[in-house]
Write a structure and sequence with these properties.
The complex is a heterodimer. By secondary structure, chain A is mostly helical. Chain A has helices spanning 2-10, 12-29, 31-34, 72-108, 110-124, 128-139, 143-153, 155-169, 173-180, 185-221, 233-242, 249-276. Chain A has a single domain (62-263), classed as MetI-like (MetI-like fold). The interface between A and B is large, with 43 and 53 residues.
Chain lengths: 284, 337
Amino acid sequence: MGELWHSLRRGKAACLGAAILLVMVLSAVLAPVVAPHDPLQAEITKRLRPPVWREKGAAENLLGSDQLGRDVLSRTIYGSRVSLMVGIIAVLISGILGVVLGMVSAFQGGRLDALIMRIADVQLAFPFILLAIAVVAVVGGGLLNVILILGVTGWVSYARVVRSQVLSVKEKEYVEAARALGSRSLVLIFRQILPNVMTPVIVLATFNVASYMVAEASLTFLGLGVQPAIPSWGIMLADGREYMRAGWWMAVFPGLALMLTVLSINLVGDWLREYLDPRLRHTE
Amino acid sequence: MWRYILRRLAQAVLVIFGVLLLVFVIMQLTGDPASLMLPPDSPAEDIQRVRIMYGLDRPLYVQFVRFLFGDIGTREAGRTVRTFASGGGWLEVPVKPRGGVIRGDFGESLRYREQPALGVVLERFPRSLELMAAAFLYAVLLSLVFGLLCALRPATLLDQGIRVLAILGQSMPSFWLGLLLILVFAVWLGWLPAMGSGTWWHLVMPAITLGSLSLARNTRLVRSGMLDVLNEDYVRTARAKGLTERLVVAKHALKNTAIPLVTLWGLDVGVLFGGAVITESIFAWPGTGRLVIESVTRRDFPVVQAAVFFIALIFVLVNLVVDLVYGWLDPRVRVGR
């Protein structure tokens, strides 16, 4: 832990990333405490108020208000909840699914392996967002569906990474030794193999939290994701687009929050990749 | 080389078959397609008639075979089915002939009546191609320039500036970039049209929006690839024999940096297709991507099927070509597998 902390402190970019991320996570968790207003409370008399530093701005709405008079800052803070929740849960689903399928593929080999890998090939033939849109078209949008769709369609990269890692680790001497000593398969998998294939999975998962957040916001922006009643960045951006002339702040701040979160995750991910595996330093 | 080509071709065919299966399954999950073709609250008799006309009363595997191959080798076409009429007696319903995907028949669009779904997709495609080509050129050319500038002057202010921009670019959601561009260049400055298509000026913001993610990623890769190559022995040899720096970079370093980039450019096509769906919606660009969203929201599933298949097909073909080019450029690839 000390070493980890030391390494994080040495990298300026990673430090910045971790700090931004911490702020984002804290504001998401503590949203009811830190948000100045109820994100859903509409006050039509205060509609389209500019941010506080602009003429006609008010301290009450630091980052302005939207077309229904709801506070942009509060909505942005609450929006981080949806984004982070979708990112993290979807990554957990796709990670677990991918790791299990990758392990099965590598251990079973033969037809099952071929089948899983061909399914992966088919899925890679679709641009990710297109596949998500096609599935949303059928099963409908909504928060839960979006999480499930992103989670279920995201397994391929994990399965591929885990499969190739397991294939190489499986033949290593320490695994042979454990097997010779009579370890049962499950013990072997959890004690010897899994810890050794998790490094790339963790790195991949970190970056994927960011990509899923963007995917969710994109789907929601297109009207195919989270319902308009829930304050989310995608909804705010879609609203903001309609009011570009009258209220630029409606589209600028939620987008900025999304970008900063993605940036912070990418910076932390870059650092994590180098920290966990110095050999990967020059690969992208 | 031939064995490699054949193996990759077989793989591509298998993947395309899988794509078709998936597209078919997705359509099945929508519930009863017959009810989509009719106004809500249509009488059961009408629904039954449509089901027979389109062969939706047949077992799933028959439907899948007809979806793929149409009526080749079947007795489906021209068949009539007798069904109960609501007023009593029988009704003879003819089964509609079907061409099958193999002949490009995905059925008719539900929104543009009587128009073949694939035709609707293909009609829009040239506009998407125009946008993607512009975005691709923007991303590839600028990334080469920026990547080279960085690699030739590492650790300078210029290098650091471009790298920071690249990291920011990679983190910026494309639809937000699009909104910001509209805000600045259309709303505030009034220099560029915010929406639509028709002139070169209309192309500028959508192309930048669509290409920026690739630009950011490629810039980082050109830079690191170039830095690696510049440290290779053959570059040192080239320098040692007295070639000018310009020749060393252009003839020796750039060529070897380009090989891994070919694969990346292939992947970019997928990124661009995915991004086009969003970019075209923001800028009301009349391409295939916007058609997908329109068709999804209006539940025009034959068009969604045709568009999704068409995009996946192009993506598979581009990657096939990329792999073949890669195998040709780098013999280790075709021998190694």
